[in-house]
Amino acid sequence: MAPLIDPYLRPITYLRLSVTDRCDFRCTYCMTEHMQFLPKADLLTLEELDRLSSAFIDLGVKKLRITGGEPLVRKGIMTYFRAMSRHLASGALNELTLTTNGSQLAKFATELADCGVRRINVSLDTLDSAKFKQITRWGRLSQVLEGISAAKAAGMRVKINTVALKGFNEGELFGLLEWCAAEGHDLTFIEVMPMGDMEETYRLGQFWSLTDLRTRLAAQFTLVDLPERTGGPARYVRLEQTGQKIGFITPLSHNFCESCNRVRLTCTGELYMCLGQEDRADLRSVLRGSADDAQVTAAIRAAIALKPKGHDFDYSRQKVAGQMSRHMSHTGG
Ligand code: SAM
Ligand code: SF4
After folding, report:
1. Is residue 235 included in any domain, yes or no?
2. Which of 31, 111, 119, 274, CA to CA, is 20 to 30 A from 290?
3. Which ligand is nearest to the CA of 264?
4. Cβ(26) – ligand 2 distance below 6 Å
5. In this structure, are residues 67 and 263 in contact, taking their beta carbons and an 8 Å threshold?
6. Does some domain include residue 238?
7. Beta bridge partners of 224
């Protein structure tokens, strides 16, 4: 089958799939405390998730990242991981992975590794248990650290994703770095994005530019830019003194949309061609309307033909521009 190429000639080889909008945490920058979740009947079933993921893989998607909400709270999710491992075994898929808050990893790490998951991203913004509670509202740091240890013990490589938050984790930059070095985890920092209907002053107040974070790092270490590209917004450096690899995801201070290779599917089957735009296609109705997979692949192709050039996130005029009213947990971070 001809590969998926968007109007800006970017090959689409990476699907991020949200399997639920629910979560056992309520991170303050991601959700409100009393989120209204979708009715369960709106969600794609595990069989539908399989059918749709397999259609993308037939169209040349090589990397599949499962996300949410918290993907590991979706009931029966291991059945889906097990099913997707057949695409790894056949060589159609290069990587099956997930982004998780880590709370359920102690339970699922061994099974995930057994399904062929080799690397996972765990979100962790602080190593202080009181601050962890403050930022996640409902989370427990010790549970997440146990989960991370279980993932490591199961042989999976762990990348820690840390949202840079002004006045919250600025003082932990070097502590997080040291902990990751000691544990053998990679570390990537992320700029906070205007997703969800949060107040402008709140968003601007919490924004810590990675340009500043990088300057602070460079005062202590020699940063060597790495050529590595994943077709996404991340850029990497190596700290010459320790050899540690650090990633920066900078949608606000620098966008790298020109090399974007990804699309995002929500748990209700809406395909978002860009995290920071409203353009979307309803694949659930196509899926439910016909058993013919040719119709599904045609709908995917039609959607990719509408992929926008990039997002419009911008805080540079002391105003939030490009805000999306939907929460990150809806589109899948
Ligand atoms: N629950 C899982 C987790 O936390 O890893 C997966 C879903 S979560 C929405 C995915 C990622 O998005 C997490 O790393 C989280 O920190 C990040 N995130 C959520 N809201 C964000 C925002 N407004 N700006 C930047 N990153 C955000
Ligand atoms: Fe849940 Fe992840 Fe959002 Fe935190 S960032 S509330 S863990 S979905």
Report:
1. no
2. 274
3. 1
4. yes
5. no
6. no
7. 238
Q: Please name the residue whose Cα sits nearest to atom 20 of ligand 1.
A: 30
Distance between CA atoms of residues 322 and 316, nearest Å: 12
Domain total in the chain: 1
Residue 129: both structure tokens together:
């248990």
Is pLDDT at 234 greater than 90 in this prediction?
no
Pairwise CA distance, residues 170 & 73, whole Å: 30
Distance separating alpha carbons of residues 253 and 228, to the nearest angstrom: 19
Q: Identify how many contiguous H helices and E strands the chain contains and give both numbers.
A: 11, 12
Ramachandran category for residue 300: left, alpha or beta (phi over 0 → left; psi -120 to 50 → alpha): alpha
Output the CA 186–ligand 2 centroid distance in Å: 20
Q: What is the CATH number of the domain that holds 73?
A: 3.20.20.70
Residue 229 located in a structural domain: no
Residue range 177-229, pLDDT digits in tens: 999 999 999 999 999 988 777 777 777 888 999 999 999 999 999 999 999 88
Q: Say if residues 97 and 67 touch (Cβ distance below 8 Å).
A: no
Q: Print burial letters for 101-127: b (CB count within 10 Å at least 16), e (below 16).
A: bbbbbbebbbebbebbbeebbbbbbbb
User: Is pLDDT above 70 for 111?
Assistant: yes
